[in-house]
Amino acid sequence: MRKSVLLIMMLFTVSMAANAQKFALIDTEYIMKNIPAAQSANEQMQEATKKYQSEVEALAKEAQKMFQDYQAKSSTLSAAQKTKTEDAIVAKEKEAAELKRNYFGPDGELAKMRDKLITPIQDDIYEAVKAISQQHGYDLVIDRASATGIIFANPRIDISDEILRKLGYSN
């Protein structure tokens, strides 16, 4: 009996504390779409991605063509020529893989470009969210764009437009 009363009191206290918290919601995708610098950065990233992808694909096609040529001629090649050709094919495949890593890897050109173009904008958004949260006393701000578990949220708690205004953009 004593444990159940204690449990009820504890649940009551927790529910009262939960009711006292203030929540807000933002949509970073919406915010980024309304910032011209972010749109420009995204376009630059897409152009670079296409360019890099075509370069990597060209090398991979070269390697594939070399392999097809090798298969067609392998019966007429000596053992030394086969080894030399196989080594050339492997080198071309390694070159394509290295180029792909240089462009698309965690320390690649695209990651560097993202750090240069997108990260400062995201930092500005974070600082605006932080300032507005402190100003209005929000205990938690959830990003609708990355919170896949949100099924419904009341639009009145969405502060995305306020964030845009704080950053100097109006919609």
From TrEMBL:
Origin superkingdom: Bacteria
The positions making up the signal sequence are 1-20
Q: Does the keyword Transcription apply?
A: no
Say if the entry is tagged with keyword Repressor.
Answer: no
Which regions form coiled coils?
Answer: 38-102
Instruction: Spell out the InterPro entries in the cross-references.
Output: Chaperone_Skp, Skp_dom_sf
Q: What's in the keyword line of the UniProt record?
A: Coiled coil, Signal
PANTHER family the UniProt entry points to: CHAPERONE PROTEIN SKP
The entry sums up its family as follows: Belongs to the Skp family.
Instruction: Provide the protein name.
Output: OmpH family outer membrane protein
| Species lineage | Bacteria, Pseudomonadati, Bacteroidota, Bacteroidia, Bacteroidales
